User: Fold these one by one.
Assistant:
Number 1:
Amino acid sequence: MPEREITYAEAIREALREEMRKDPSVFLIGEDIGVYGGAFGVTQGLLEEFGEERVIDTPISEAAIAGAAIGAALLGMRPVAEIMFFDFMTLCADQIVNQAAKIRFMFGGKAKVAIVVRSPAGSGTGAAGHHSGSLESWFTHVPGLKVVAPATPYDAKGLLKSAIRDDNPVIFVEHKLLYRVKGPVPEEEYVIPLGVGEVKRRGKDLTIVTYSLMVRRSLEAAEILSREGIDVEVVDVRTLRPLDEEVVLESVRKTHRALVVYEPPRFGAFGAEIAALIAEKAFDDLDAPVMRLGGLEMPPPYNPHLERRIVPQVEDIVAACRELMS
Amino acid sequence: MLSVDEKLRMYFTMLCIRRFEEKAEELYMAGKIWGTFHLYIGEEAVATGACFALRPEDYITSTHRGHGHCIAKGADVRKMMAELMGKATGYCLGLGGSMHIADLEGGNLGATGIVGSAIPIAAGAALACKLQKNNRVVLCFFGDGAANTGAFHEAVNLAAVFKLPVVFLCENNLYAMSFPVKKAFAIPDIAERAKGYGIPGVTVDGMDVLSVYEATKEAVERARKGEGPTLIEARTYRFRGHSKSDKGVYRTKEEVRMWMERCPIKRFREHLLGEGVPEETLRDLEKKAEELIEEAVRFAEESPELTIEEARRLVYA
């Protein structure tokens, strides 16, 4: 029997539903997640099943959403907050960075902030400067937080289930352009541990290290390059913090060339941390300097032709690989 | 009505706060406590009156000026003093310090160094109380400064529309660091803000422990009945500066003296004497508070410190 295929959004919804059925302390809180079903439809149908007590629509108050999740977690709940667009994470950054991330440590390890903050990131929808951000790098810089950015429906479901069960605050980065992408997701239950990357494609000539939407584009690029005789390995780190260093290093030690691909502006983004890791721990294995392919240094423009240019496209990844092989 | 015994416990709590703060100041001067802290001296009636209106299983959230809240909620002053000295026996193992004391077992969900940031957390704790149907109430302390943050607006509104079991207690000590409420608010009473959220608002004399108690009790009962939050504004005054960096240039000596004459402890002492409590009983309590704090200092001084390896293990669960 062929494996069932569902979308990334459906996979996330399934993870939420399964965890809510399993654990009464899990509840959802956010803007328009109830009757509206979420701005991207992710929580559709959950209000009907779990009621207003567990699918909580709030006023437009991001700081209160995040803060309420934290306060409820201090009393043993496992809230999953939805922040409608990743750009709006700035509105609750104090709660996430100063409270959620630090409370356990500041209180001597006695408090538990088991929250998940889900939010759609990324450009490509024509939503311009305030609804297209990829700000995940900021949160990877905060000890106490975990940051997860799945690339496939299978990973999204398995990682979200782990994130909900995790006793730490987890920032769950969803990509808008992946929501409708279908992929195999088994009917039976499974989880994917946080902090474990995966080789998404085996190859011997060059390693692409990436995450989220860029995994998909890198895989497409790899197919094109394979026709030219360039055999690309694609490593999806899946969790940005804590980072699975071994899956990256093992691959680079095999291929001797590394390209880091990421959507946020190139300068100072999380991809630079991966490049630094390779330079520090696999320098002697490299046949060429680590290369980074990131976004342009510009706020997301509205014009569709310009918007497309600021984020690595398949052809950009192909070109970067060719350059790295030359 | 409060019994004489209960009033004496209140008096003892206020004394413990005062002595704790005086001792902390002394230790700071002697170089035994470092960093900075925010003393609660002068405001003892607020924390005491409010926390006595709670049940032991209820919760509070606290502020950067939080020692008084902590003691009034029933904390162990030894663990508090150890925290101020950065010791491993402190409430937060010496990792939080003065501004981040939490006593989770005692229902104190913690102090915060970001003004206003605990207000949404209090709303969230109250949301959990509602979801867990545990019949508990959250008392949220914050200052006049916090009442002008966006977090205040978002959280009070959220609690109001969800009818959460929380009491918002604004300790209006008339200055947000140096900025006077007269310049920070275009309304005379912060409690008036309640109207904008459709909840009751009340202003009380924060130098009178019994007034604070009565107002909080009513608000707590309302919250416990599922009728939602109340905003209480307690007018009070800090006798010391904002923090250890305060040079005292923004308040007149006359103003400070005038408020010090209204000392909440002196006032309550007179009330108790008027009720026929023998002075000797009060003196015994005063001595007992003194001894308790001395014992806390001994405990803290003899305590070990955490290693960096031990601290590192506490970042993630």
Note: Chain A has two domains: 5-184, 198-325.
Number 2:
Amino acid sequence: MNRDFEHLVASDGLAPEEDARLRRVHELLLAAGAPPELPATLENQPRAPSANENVVTLPAKRRSPVLVALLAATIAVACFAGGYFVANQSRGAGNHDVRVVSLQGAGQQKSLASLHIGPADSNGNRPIRLTVTGLPPLAREYASYYLMLWQNHKATLLCGIFEVGADGPTTVSFSVPYAITNGTRWVVTEVNPGVRFPGRVVMTTI
Amino acid sequence: MAHVVLMPRIACVCSDGELIERTGAGDRSAFDKLYRRYARPVFGLALSRLGDRGRAEDAVQETFASVWRSARTYKAERGPGAPWLYTIARNAIVDRSRARTELPVEVPDEPSLELGPDERAEQAWTRWHVHGALERLPERERELISLAYWSELSQTEIAAQLGIPLGTVKTRTRSALLRLADILEGELE
């Protein structure tokens, strides 16, 4: 295809400075190349900022002493319950676990797993301890299970590779440099030789 | 009697800076307009840096979430909106690239013919500007520019596809380039 300026643009009658402007834009278009096609997920609207992303200043209200006492009691109970829950969740996994996530078998798979995710160190690496039970041992050579992050409906980032034995639960430890939030989801995939990475999903976050 | 302050409706000629300021004031229609104008440039930038469509999509989402959160901090007197948006997008992309698994790199025997960091940065900036300006063209002109510069169609085929005379294709291309020049020069002011 001919992409010369004279071939694409009706430039006759243009003043020299206008001609120079258009030629500059022409060169910029050629240098920039075509814009990418937006994926369908981004085509429509931006993720609507949720209401709680707005900072709203509420007018100060005078509250009754009874209401204040009730509110304080509710907060105290909630704090106690929260502390009890967290203590139970982290028992046996050390006191520095910041989060515990459960996974279950996909489809008919009767497996269960828990992930104990520790705090990130100064370099951004987080320890993860996976305890899994109910997964069948993989018989084929070089076959393994992969623990991966699940984003945009697919397994994306690898957290670790493991195998399981025939008896009892298997516990393995990994370290990952990824940003992990409350919304982060994991999967376990089964990867067999000759099967395209990241293989078949066998466990998902509950 | 209470005074009700209404946001004026946004004309299509709003500058990026105005849209950011309105977004900072909580105007979601301004935010949507910014998104429509810059989603493609942000995605292009992310794709070229990350090389992965999924991560690039995440970077676009993160960029616009950051725009929504920090639009209030934008100060028009410090400069136009496009570089401010570019900085936010670049930071979001850098965050995403830190989260990727780095594979060991083999040292090549021959010097690379690929662009160096400076050239890549300049090219990314050019793309950003041009693709952002394209989004501000009327649909008809944007389509024409796409066909003229990046399709495999000849001018005669473009005329046939759009149902207009060949001469009109060239004069409309000229109009579109003039408008682009105005937008691009306005951004650089």
Note: Chain A has two domains: 40-81, 99-205.
